What does this fold into?
Amino acid sequence: MFGPVTWQPTIAEYIEARHSQSGFSREWMGDELVKEFDRELGTLLARQFPNGRCQIDISFTVAWGTPSSPVSS
It folds into this structure.
């Protein structure tokens, strides 16, 4: 296990990171929904993080190995 590591993006950086996820991609959402999403998420995050930087603790586990048998479909 690695972490926790604190990630402290600006609110704008955090919102941009959300758009890198498939369900929130700018192409999928369209211009109007992107504007609304950015405005509403920005407002919520500004209340939670008044200094303009998010505080997010990140931990993860990496498992190495080879599957013992093929996955059947």
About this structure: The mean pLDDT is 92.
